[in-house]
Amino acid sequence: MEKEVLFEEYDEGFAVLTINRPEKMNAISLSVVDQLTRWLDKIQSYRLKFLIITGSGTKAFCAGGDLNDFHGDLDADQAYQVLEPMKNVLYKITTLPFPTIAWMNGVARGGGLEIASACDFRFAKQEGNFGFVQGKLGISTGWGGGTLLYERIHPQDAFQWLVEADIRDVQQLKEIGFIQKVITGEKIEADCGLLELFINRSYEQMTLWKQQRLQKINLDQLKEQMDQEVKACSKLWESDDHKQAVKQFFVKNGK
Ligand SMILES: CC[C@@H](C(=O)O)C(=O)SCCNC(=O)CCNC(=O)[C@H](O)C(C)(C)COP(=O)(O)OP(=O)(O)OC[C@H]1O[C@@H](n2cnc3c(N)ncnc32)[C@H](O)[C@@H]1OP(=O)(O)O
Questions:
Q1: Could you tell me the CATH number of the domain that includes residue 98?
Q2: ipTM of the assembly?
Q3: Ligand 1 pocket member 107 (CB < 6 A)
Q4: Which of 19, 52, 175, 242 is close enough to 26 for a disulfide, judged by CB 3.0 to 4.6 Å?
């Protein structure tokens, strides 16, 4: 079976973690959650200047939670059990000892943007489109990524995006400061210029700056708020609005 998460280290001192389900728009299955958890635990101690998180293929960064694995007929307790491990993944990404870049090489929806919000920097593909669509699914962000979004952009913009749940382009994301750079090539290697200023720094510098960044966040409070967010979302899981929205996706996709 094809590995659903790939890891590759580069001579320049960085590494790339890739969600590898291009035929499913890199949606996060339960098995991906498991593999991400293992990789993140392992690379904690690696000597990396920075880590890139991306998706396979050219269409999608990540379509959020796999609607088959996550959105079954679950009650609030069951929903919490399936959502919580991915919250831990996001917390691990946030607190890695080196900077992280979400290389958003295509569309992102829902939890895909939560993953991006866990990263320190976000670079997005010019042609991509992006939406915190949870609002349209009768739920809220379920992996703690709403809390993280408030850390990354102005609270008013975060609030508005979550409420409106609209699909935005690169220009709109730039305007609210969600992304720092625009990707124009198809592969990371082709767009290496975007990384030059990161590659030129030493491992010691990068880890020191990451440490400083983390000192600006109250991590205990962050963890607690992320957990509250998962619990709140779990309660919405049982709603008719949510069940109806998921059904519609499967009907639209001929399932
Ligand atoms: C549970 C976590 C929760 C959170 O806490 O935040 C969420 O993440 S909620 C958000 C869940 N995600 C979505 O609602 C997005 C659903 N997908 C789409 O809207 C579209 O697929 C797309 C991402 C806009 C791409 O559209 P398009 O280019 O038209 O491709 P297809 O729709 O034909 O998709 C191709 C293929 O991929 C499968 N797919 C896509 N997204 C998911 C998904 N989230 N879960 C499972 N499968 C997904 C889709 O079913 C197609 O498969 P096949 O029909 O087998 O070809």
A1: 3.90.226.10
A2: 0.98
A3: yes
A4: 19
